[in-house]
Amino acid sequence: GAGVSQSPSNKVTEKGKDVELRCDPISGHTALYWYRQSLGQGLEFLIYFQGNSAPDKSGLPSDRFSAERTGGSVSTLTIQRTQQEDSAVYLCASSLFPRGPLTGELFFGEGSRLTVL
Amino acid sequence: KQEVTQIPAALSVPEGENLVLNCSFTDSAIYNLQWFRQDPGKGLTSLLLIQSSQREQTSGRLNASLDKSSGRSTLYIAASQPGDSATYLCAVTQGGSEKLVFGKGTKLTVNP
Question: Is residue A48 less than 8 Å (CB to CB) from chain B?
Answer without folding.
Answer: yes
